[in-house]
């Protein structure tokens, strides 16, 4: 299973977890862990704090497992739980928010047949990465939720507790900034 795809039988897994099936809980945990960890890192910039938040969220999910089947859409629910956990950590002063952003790998597949092509690809990749890093924080978070976590606009709005039009505006801003960053590369073609 591709880690960026949703569990096809998530409803069944949630039902099994709600009945106390620890293997189903492990499946749910393993499916969401990497994505939620990366999401928490956007807020906290601390691996230890991000791991703590994820652990706390899953602890509560297990503890309150009987309520899982009453959650209409688990995907935005769990992201919102992690977001709220991150905000609580930031409010507590446990860690301070830093301006530096962890180096995340973007997945861009371009054929590089010659060394010149490979160099151009690396320059383009770097330009896109820098454009994403330089986005305002909310814009960057929304962009990554849409592109890396493949969440739809409504799920992002629910998770971040913002209006749908805010998500759409932030994505348009992100796309415009990235387009501007790659403009010099398009002129070379």
Automatic annotation (TrEMBL):
Domain of life: Bacteria
Any one GO BP annotation for this protein: DNA-templated transcription initiation
Keyword line: DNA-directed RNA polymerase, Sigma factor, Transcription, Transcription regulation
Protein family: Belongs to the sigma-70 factor family. ECF subfamily.
Pfam families according to UniProt: Sigma70_r2 (PF04542), Sigma70_r4_2 (PF08281)
UniProt domain RNA polymerase sigma factor 70 region 4 type: residue ranges: 127-178
Full protein name: RNA polymerase sigma-70 factor
Organism annotation: Bacteroides thetaiotaomicron
Any one GO cellular component localisation term in the record: DNA-directed RNA polymerase complex
PANTHER family reported in the protein's UniProt record: RNA POLYMERASE ECF-TYPE SIGMA FACTO, RNA POLYMERASE SIGMA-70 FACTOR ECF SUBFAMILY
Domain RNA polymerase sigma-70 region: 28-91
Database matches in InterPro entries: RNA_pol_sigma-70-like, RNA_pol_sigma-70_dom, RNA_pol_sigma70_bacteroid, RNA_pol_sigma70_r2, RNA_pol_sigma70_r4_t2, RNA_pol_sigma_r2, RNA_pol_sigma_r3/r4-like, WH-like_DNA-bd_sf
SUPFAM superfamilies attached to this UniProt entry: Sigma2 domain of RNA polymerase sigma factors, Sigma3 and sigma4 domains of RNA polymerase sigma factors
A GO molecular-function descriptor: sigma factor activity
